[in-house]
Write a structure and sequence with these properties.
The complex is a heterodimer of chains A (about 270) and B (about 600). Chain A is an alpha/beta fold and about 270 residues long. Chain A is built from twelve helices and eight strands. Chain A has an eight-stranded parallel β-barrel, surrounded by seven helices. The longest helix of chain A is centred in the first third of the chain and has 14 residues. Chain B folds into three domains: about 210 residues, 4-Layer Sandwich (Aldehyde Ferredoxin Oxidoreductase,  A, domain 1), CATH 3.60.9.10; about 170 residues, Aldehyde Ferredoxin Oxidoreductase Protein, subunit A, domain 2, CATH 1.10.569.10; about 170 residues, Orthogonal Bundle (Aldehyde Ferredoxin Oxidoreductase Protein, subunit A, domain 3), CATH 1.10.599.10. Chain B contains 23 helices and 19 strands. In chain B, strand 5 and strand 6 form a beta hairpin. Chains A and B meet through helix 9 and helix 10 of A and helix 19 of B.
């Protein structure tokens, strides 16, 4: 992959979603986003107005999360939250899907939930967070299709607060499902340029990460060796290995583990640590 | 350009001290040498390569002892306060450099010096007092025999309260192979017996007070590069959080978790009591405050209070060597033993490793002694015996290779080229293992700190078990480390900075056109010259190896069922280095690096 440092920076949503973030942190985030020419800053609604002031007139977009991080609030609340952040200067919104409704196969509710946010967002970009770690592959695909039907612009893997982060496997699945007409944002646990490049290679065109500066700076190492990108053990990046019964519904956890039994790389699934 | 009140590094001088006839000579830094080797380690290696006859006894007056700083020293470049000691090692017989933090290096540079080169030997104990341009060789009989803390205090009292001292303790005076040079009472150029070389010259200390302002070629460019470098340190979780909070001992838990914390002389890779000697426990029980070396925004050093006494450390490697390596789980005792080593001027890594070796010899019935794994009884006394070369201590003071060989079990010495391997079992990290085997100064973790990518995921995580791609990364880190030691800056910056950042700072500081690739070329030049020095001393392919223990898998822990695959990686390493199959740099390579070929 031949991606310049600048091109890599343009894929990144510079993210700060911790509840304890102070205004000074948001100021720093915006300054860094301007300095590195990141695609956007991704922040909680309470900081939108301040960030919009700081980034006014720049190419860096202001992105707010909606219904975050659980997605389990009312569609009306998500819509109102969207209207409010748009009024305050948000140019993109990352909403969390109604995960429970999706698992209930209540697809009308899932679709209308997204439609409500899309309608409230005006011209803003809408990204739909699936929280892939709570879903099986069929559910991920269905969520992608519902997002597309509802008029969203992107599907996004994870909140970063859920049971697992972005994996190349999920990104590939999502890209194959939505095609080229939608964006795919990978988010959650992306800390190194190696992870970033693998997710882009799998089909992501936007990355949500709080390690944006480290990723960009460390990417300069890439010019000095090709060995950074040596293939890892296949299981390292597989969501099945990250499955965790304490954090996932039992049937989802078992679904992931069942995949291991049928995996063509199962011979590699031997770890001594 | 510098103004009249400042002095560029290129204008700094070499101070030659002939201890035999007590002459002092100043020479300008040769421009060619400076441009091709920068300073610090590179400067020292070049001086030794050009001036030492092959085969000299490292403890004879024929050996040289170089204290060097670099173009980043005492400038705004973060961590630019270190100094490097370069000599032929009595422990390994190789070229050797050992560096230390503290504040001594900055003073040396502020005295207008790039290096102090000691030749010959004094008939009686002396110390060197550098007070800006005034240089005196002074009588050291009052401090001979004294520990490093007392020596430091007395010499500061005798010279200037703002002076900095680098000195040896009794271990150096007795020329034991494990002797260190200590500055600020607890920062040590610890490895390779550099303190013994100092002792062999009857040189107790170097005391320096400098008041000049080092200049830089492009101040504005350097300001920008430094601002950026400081930001990167602030943004990196290792340099901004782990190291400042826990110091290097944060690694105890990390390395133990990976099953690579050498236990009972590398017989095991997991120490059951690691929690009790961890960085977290040190913070809870003994930490007084962090210690920052000159110009360092990280502050990985620790000051501890143990049984009412304030002391430096202990650092990760020292905790390991005096703890798990000897099966000892008493952190309070480890801190006291570490302090004793600092006062006596002994390398904690090598002394702990050699004690562990002795304990295994006892375990296997090859040595009759009361030393036992896990038992602290008599160990502090044994450390003293080592420093004063008394009884069994005199034997241990020669290092594990000689000691184990003398007791009929050379395979029990965990060393490469005579230098004890530090706190990472190479079976769990293939790249790091190759780094140990090919290190020009013997078993060293810092020539190519592959623990970064292989364990800590810095800059990215690479599979620690595979050999593919590792030669490439080991060479990259070896060359970069050599360049860093020329600047001279701390290894820990490597978590936050890339090659380009170092190059930007050295380029702005010197005015030389040095980008990342050129900086690595300088590093490669130094690495190859060191290799040539060692070849001249008789080292060959058979020395680029690990002890046989590492060909047998560990049976438990996170690195079980693995062996170090040096044989797989070494041919590719030589090939990528541009060396022949015996590990000798080819003429073509030397020509490309502008290293004169000896006929």
């Amino acid at each position: 992959m031949t991606l310049t440092v600048e091109q890599l920076a343009q894929t990144i949503d510079h993210t700060e979603l911790k509840p304890e973030a102070k205004q000074s942190k948001i100021k720093q985030l915006c300054e860094e986003a301007l300095s590195y020419n990141f695609a956007a800053v991704c922040i909680n609604p309470v900081h939108i107005e301040y960030a919009a002031q700081l980034l006014k007139g720049s190419a860096v977009k202001v992105c707010s999360v909606i219904g975050f991080p659980l997605g389990a609030t009312l569609s009306e609340v998500k819509a109102m939250e969207t209207r409010e952040v748009v009024t305050r200067g948000a140019q993109e919104v990352d909403m969390v899907i109604n995960v429970g409704a999706l698992r209930d196969e209540n697809y009308d509710l899932v679709r209308s939930d997204i439609e409500a946010v899309v309608a409230a967002s005006g011209d803003d970009l809408v990204k739909v967070i699936l929280e892939t770690g709570l879903l099986t592959d069929d559910q991920k695909k269905k969520a992608c299709l519902l997002s597309k039907e509802a008029g969203a612009d992107f599907v996004k893997t994870s909140t970063g607060f859920g049971p697992m982060g972005a994996t190349p496997y999920d990104v590939k699945l999502m890209r194959e499902t939505v095609g080229d007409s939608m964006g795919v944002k990978a988010a959650g646990g992306i800390r190194t340029f190696k992870e970033a490049l693998r997710l882009i290679d799998a089909g992501a065109n936007r990355l949500g990460t709080s390690s944006g500066i480290g990723i960009i700076e460390d990417y300069r190492w890439a010019q000095y060796s090709e060995s950074w990108m040596q293939p890892d053990k296949p299981c390292w990046t597989c969501p099945s290995r990250m499955a965790n019964i304490a954090k996932q519904p039992k049937e989802v956890y078992l679904w992931y583990k069942q995949r291991c039994l049928m995996c063509p790389n199962k011979d590699h699934n031997v770890f001594t640590e | 350009m510098s103004d009249a009140s400042t002095q560029l590094y290129s204008e700094a001088e070499l101070l030659f001290i002939s201890l035999t006839d007590r002459t002092i000579t100043r020479k300008p830094l040769p421009p060619g040498l400076y441009k091709e080797y920068l300073g610090g380690r590179g400067l020292g290696v070049k001086l030794l390569y050009d001036n030492l006859a092959p085969g000299i006894d490292p403890l004879s007056p024929d050996n040289w002892l170089v204290f060097a700083v670099g173009p980043s020293t005492a400038t705004s470049v973060p961590t630019g306060g270190r100094f490097v000691v370069i000599t032929k090692s009595p422990a390994t017989g190789t070229i050797f450099d050992s560096n230390a933090g503290g504040y001594f290096g900055a003073q040396l540079r502020r005295a207008g010096l790039a290096a102090v080169i000691f030749t010959g030997a004094s008939k009686s104990p002396v110390y060197l007092w550098i007070n800006d341009n005034q240089v005196e060789i002074r009588d050291a009989s009052k401090v001979w025999g004294k520990t490093t803390d007392i020596t430091t205090d007395l010499l500061i009292k005798e010279t200037d309260e703002k002076a900095q001292v680098a000195c040896i303790g009794p271990a150096g005076e007795n020329m034991i192979n494990l002797a260190a040079i200590v500055t600020d009472k607890h920062r040590a150029a610890g490895r390779g017996g550099v303190g013994a070389v100092m002792g062999s010259k009857n040189l107790k200390a170097v005391v320096v007070r400098g008041t000049k302002t080092p200049g830089v070629a492009q101040p504005e460019k350097l300001r920008e590069a430094v601002e950026r470098a400081r930001l990167l340190i602030k943004k990196n979780p290792v340099t901004d959080k782990s190291l400042p909070v826990y110091g290097t001992p944060v690694l105890v838990s990390v390395i133990n978790e990976a099953g690579m914390l050498p236990t009972r002389n590398f017989q095991e890779g997991r120490f059951n009591d690691a929690d009790g000697v961890s960085g977290e426990k040190l913070l809870e029980r003994f930490s007084l405050k962090p210690y920052n070396c000159f110009g360092c925004p990280i502050g990985c050093g620790r000051m501890s209070r143990v049984r009412g006494k304030d002391m430096g450390g202990p650092e990760f490697e020292s905790i390991w060597a005096l703890g798990p390596q000897c099966g000892i789980n008493n952190l309070e005792w480890i801190a006291l033993a570490n302090d004793k080593c600092n006062l006596l001027g002994i390398d904690t890594i090598s002394v702990g490793s050699t004690l562990g070796c002795a304990m295994e010899l006892v375990q296997r019935g090859k040595l009759e002694h009361s030393l036992r794994f896990g038992d602290t009884t008599g160990v502090l006394e044994m450390i003293e015996d080592i420093a004063y070369a008394r009884g069994l201590g005199a034997e241990l003071g020669k290092g594990s290779k000689v000691f184990a060989t003398n007791h009929g079990a050379p395979e029990l010495a965990m060393q490469v080229k005579g230098l004890e391997i530090p706190a990472y079992d190479p079976r769990g990290v293939q790249g790091h293992a190759l780094g140990y085997a090919t290190s020009n100064r013997g078993g060293c973790h810092l020539r190519s700190y592959m623990i970064g990518p292989e364990i800590m995921g810095s800059p990215v995580l690479v599979d620690r078990d595979i050999t593919e791609g590792k030669t490439d990364l080991v060479i990259l880190f070896q060359n970069l480390s050599a360049a860093m030691d020329c600047m001279v800056v701390c290894r820990f910056t490597n978590f936050a900075w890339t090659v380009d950042d170092y190059a930007a700072m050295v380029s702005a500081g010197t005015g030389l056109k040095i980008d990342g690739k050129e900086l690595l070329r300088i590093g490669a030049r130094i690495w190859n010259l060191e290799k040539l020095f060692n070849i001249r001393e008789g080292f060959g392919k058979s020395d680029d190896t690990l002890p046989p223990r590492f060909s047998t898998p560990l049976t438990e822990g996170g690195s079980r069922n693995r062996v170090a695959q040096i044989d797989v990686m070494l041919p590719e390493y030589y090939s990528r280095r541009g060396w022949d199959k015996e590990g000798r740099p080819t003429g073509k390579l030397l020509k490309s690096l502008n290293i004169p070929i000896e006929r």
